[in-house]
């Protein structure tokens, strides 16, 4: 469903893609992901959207954000908001849907094909609008997790649904070996 001469853009809902990969039991290799879609067409932009906790000394996502920024991704971030819910639990809110939608709408006149990495049903009106502008839309998510990570209405609206699990061999990172080191010694070194 891809043509070599079409102008592509990737719109990656970072937390959604991360959750889908985790649900399927693999990590995404973002270098391979970008290379795969460069191979499929003329990649104009690869956007990655994520919220960041700014007040923590260390954010576990910061190394990924920095790596993506230096390796050809257009990073779109904003500060996540922390709050305490009614049960007294600390929660983090950082929805990037509006930023993603605005970027997709602005780029639409220069695109032939948009690839949305999200299963969020809130994106159905965006997909419909892009299609009215003549842009084909592929959605990458999964129906193989329990529960499925893609909203049925989004999958039905897309021109093409790409099952994330079928990309595992192309964009998946090899699993890391578990580390059993203690005091500088390896557990298997006996």
Automatic annotation (TrEMBL):
Domain of life assignment: Bacteria
Domain annotation NYN: ranges: 7-165
Pfam families per record: NYN
One term of GO molecular function: RNA nuclease activity
Protein's recorded name: NYN domain-containing protein
Organism from which the protein derives: Roseinatronobacter ekhonensis
